[in-house]
Specification:
This protein is mainly beta. It has 2 helices and 13 strands.
């Protein structure tokens, strides 16, 4: 999980950025992910790394993820909780919307995404904390590969 605080416009930089790595990753996997996410391996993270003014040390922690009925729930016990849900239809009795978009370009991702509403987005790390709810979120599947 990558988390960030971006104080102004994306391209102005001075981001605070941290990473949680799953505690089930072995040391080779953790080292490889650290190399990739720090930008040392090149690619998109090398470019985005120039925008980070305050990199936080990575933490290896238990990460739990669950997807149920179009919603997503992600927790790092004691540090982070993110939960999304489908957007409720504005007309009573119509259920939920399943809105999808393509061609979205956001940091780290540019594929098809489902638009969701955040029920909870909370980070309570001593290095960086915030809490939001009711804002939009994008859910998509991606894959990075390299040499």
């Amino acid at each position: 999980m990558i988390y960030a605080r971006i104080p102004g416009l994306l391209y102005e930089g001075n981001w605070t950025l941290g990473v949680y790595l799953d505690d089930q990753a072995n040391s080779d996997q953790a080292d490889s992910l650290g190399s990739i996410l720090s930008g040392q391996a090149g690619g998109i993270f090398e470019v985005l790394g120039t925008l980070v003014g305050n990199p936080l040390p990575p933490k290896q922690v238990p990460i739990n993820y669950e997807a149920v009925d179009g919603g997503h729930h992600f927790t790092v016990p004691g540090l982070a909780e993110i939960e999304s849900e489908r957007i409720h239809h504005p007309m009573p009795g119509q259920g939920s919307l399943d809105t999808q978009v393509t061609g979205v370009a956001v940091p780290f991702y540019s594929g098809a995404a489902s638009i969701r509403r955040t029920k909870v987005m909370k980070l309570t790390d001593s290095e960086l904390s915030f809490e939001y709810e009711g804002s939009s979120s994008l859910i998509g599947q991606f894959e990075f590969s390299g040499p």
